[in-house]
């Protein structure tokens, strides 16, 4: 279990804190066994294409707090993805019947002269501008490679501006070069919230924190039946709402890759219990998760009744879908725990998962509880997964392995990955709402979308006829993990 320390402005990156890796090739069971034995080593690549950045992941959580403003202390290029967050923010507000205002995002535009003389004055000026223009309840300052390399004392500036402006001005240390694991940025964002925004509890409430991205509301119905209320954090919450998350009855994570640090911090610092179970994907995972929720909320009898009713409602239809999907082959590319959850879900539907390219691997979560390890649960419940690759979005590896495996279906969790399947004529499905496949009903929702995707194969067949791959014939004939070296468990091809 990692120890949360709110006295330091930075949270250690996942490589150091959890022993997380971005390079592995072998089988899922092999990875679980190495992780459980404590012998997991990262396999470094001698060739790498572009990947994500911690700064972006920190930004995607903090930038959707509805009454806060963001200052990105960075060259303007680091702000190149602001438009995407603004799009998600506006769409998410409309879905929640909120006025679709634009994001309050500012960038300090660090230039060459600033890298020589320092960017602190520019940062102060930008924070003042953000305060005047946006009138926010808090300002978050995200750092960058440039601000980290030149050694700007961002924490001193934000402390000074907090005193001057009378609102929390909070540094979020998330320099991209510090970690190959961009989910370290989630931890940085949550550290800044717990350190400077969350207040000690004054009372206990019946609210349950739900650490999520921006998915649909699938928890209110369940929690209301149990006498509790869903409190979705961090996107689309307010600063005042975040101040009180220490008073919640429990914390749910829709994905431990996202919420591992915040769940553990709230439990360690304020005693808010975290639901430590496999996430609720597939029948076995949903059973285990529901029972743990019932135990933590002291509603064990009520949960057993809900499980019986909800399972009975989906089982006949599930059998129908299994009959239609059994034998379908699939390859997955997704973030860590969500990818593990999707493997469970697909296996539950009878689909043959032929492999997965998963963006990183955490051998343990911050709570240290092995019961919460989704890959361990998936392998124990549904068996091993061959062609299991830990790969931080290295498209050249993905294109190569897809071309060999040639599954009936590809499932991708992130935009920018789907076209690799489509170019090869493989029907590819991306579902952005990770709550869509949650729980017993989620199995039916996902099965329906898979069948729709398989029914529309003609689109990708035609696309493939008119597409070219950017990779040479030489590369497509090489073993896919040619450039993955070091201490890895490479499967022969
Ligand atoms: S913080 Fe670093 S890695 Fe991230 S976008 Fe800026 S320069 Fe690139």
Automatic annotation (TrEMBL):
Record-linked Gene3D superfamilies: Nitrogenase molybdenum iron protein domain
Name of this chain's protein: Nitrogenase
UniProt superkingdom: Bacteria
One family name in Pfam for this protein: Oxidored_nitro
Annotated signal peptide: none
GO molecular function (one): oxidoreductase activity
InterPro entries documented for this protein: Nase/OxRdtase_comp1 (IPR000510), NifE-like (IPR049939)
Record-annotated Nitrogenase/oxidoreductase component domain positions: 59-454
